[in-house]
User: Fold this.
Amino acid sequence: MTSERTLLIIKPDGVRRSLVGLIITRIEQMGLVISNMRMFSMDDVFARTFYAEHNGQDFFPALLSFMTSGPVVALQIESPNAIALVRTAIGATRPEERLPGTIRADFSSQLTENVAHASASQSDAERELALVFGVAVRD
Ligand code: CMP
Assistant:
């Protein structure tokens, strides 16, 4: 199978709680390849653009406030099936659906402050990687 690229973001709560190394280790232990990495702080415009699909939801203001509350670490990850593998590794959005062993289940019981984000589809991955790293996904 051809390699896919996806984006994992360690959110401000994950950085504040010193979970960066642990999350990177989990990704590397799965045999996935980290091919780019960036630590930065989202401003309001960036967060609104990144999460545009959620604009209008009741949780959108809280999400913006949280995502701009401190630095994040973004990882570009490559492997066959990277999108599905990283989504599975971080766990479900809803706390009660998170399986033990997933990053969110192990480190958060919160809906918004959930430690990590991962691209949901190939089109999301391409859009999000371009926003974060400023380059097209495909060489
Ligand atoms: P993430 O996977 O980054 O995508 C959108 C984020 O919005 C989600 O993680 C949560 O941090 C936050 N969020 C808060 N409430 C909800 C909700 N009801 N449904 C989906 N996402 C939510």
Summary: Residues 54, 59, 63, 93, 111-112, 114, 117 surround adenosine-3',5'-cyclic-monophosphate (CB under 6 Å).
